[in-house]
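Students often ask why we bother encoding 3D structure as a string. The short answer is that it lets us treat folding as translation between two languages. Here is a chain of 402 residues written in the first language.
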Amino acid sequence: MAKVQLTGNADAAEFCPCEPYLHILAAASYTLQEGEEPVRLGELYLYSAQKTAESGSSTLSLTPIFHRETSGVFDICWRPWSDGSSRPCLAQASADGTLRLHKLQDGPTSCAAELHETSRADVSSSMCLFVDWAPNSSEPQVAVSHSDGSLSVIDVGQADPQVISSWDAHGFEAWIVSYDTWKPQIVHSGGDDSQFCCWDLRDTQRPAFRDRKTHQMGVCSIQSSPLLENVLVTGSYDEHVRLWDLRMIQKPVVQVELGLGGGVWRLKWHHSDSQLLLAACMHNGFAVARVGEEEIEVLERYEDHNSLAYGGSWYAGDWEQKASGEVQSAASMMRGLAIAAGERRPNQEEDELEAQAQNKSIPAVTHSSSSPGSRCLVATCSFYDKALHIWEPKTLASSRTI
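And here it is in the second language, the structure alphabet:
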């Protein structure tokens, strides 16, 4: 629906999850300039997703509103919560070993915005590969994974971020570190050593569990469900996505898996549908899948990119097909964000106790929007062709289930 090209190699794209900035899309790039002393360059971009009317029909466009050169960027992540008084904050995992925080500020016009770097911390002598925010707003923290296999947790609740803890987690690159949405003291990690680990931040001398056998190649992506407790997915170079049951924290169980092809680099749960999953499959484009207890079904593939599929993000608002106007946000979508912040659904505790007693899985719950015209948008980016796209999954447009 909308396509732009970055200056550098595109490797990350993230819609802002906070009102009233849901239409703001951040993107990042990483470019290696080879030579006797290789230089890793990066850029940050902001785009505004807007809907325009032409000849009686509406189209979506991406308007560039901000651009800055920086160190090579491996990952970016918006702070998932807002207290109403603070501006949205974007964390940057940099190739020079720094963690950088950027506050979103209003620009000179109503549709413009800018990123202001508010802090920079030298986290490691190795490269920062991935960054994730803790779900608990009372203790602002981020976790970062590194190219030497280590993990770090940084306190960002003060002017100068401080490393709280750092430890060796993997034998090779630690591609991913991810907080458990429901248990802020738990993080999961995956590495090029094909290992999937769980760490209790109160004691990181040894993992709560370490799985060495399930993944046949490096573990690239991990994300716990924002809507269902004890539900998590992993993605791997072995081309498979796996759904895990984490109720037994020291011995998690793979419920179902599916080969998506290409190497599963990134996985993103939908914010309000507990079964929708977006997958960046490197050499095999992007896939939208429906994840059930007994089956993972690919609903649609997006193959308009001409290079490695790396970054992807769901738009957290509600885009409606009208004759004119801009991308609109829907209050109903905030239900999913509230649950992700710690709100439990009705009768959830009773469901869990009964499921554990009967050794059954907790039933999935799909949250429906009250707006019959609500639509679904996805942002994706690919590396060497430097492409950033916004598109609407056709299967979800024709049969809207959210």
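Translate back mentally: The radius of gyration is 20 Å. Keep this in mind for the problem set.
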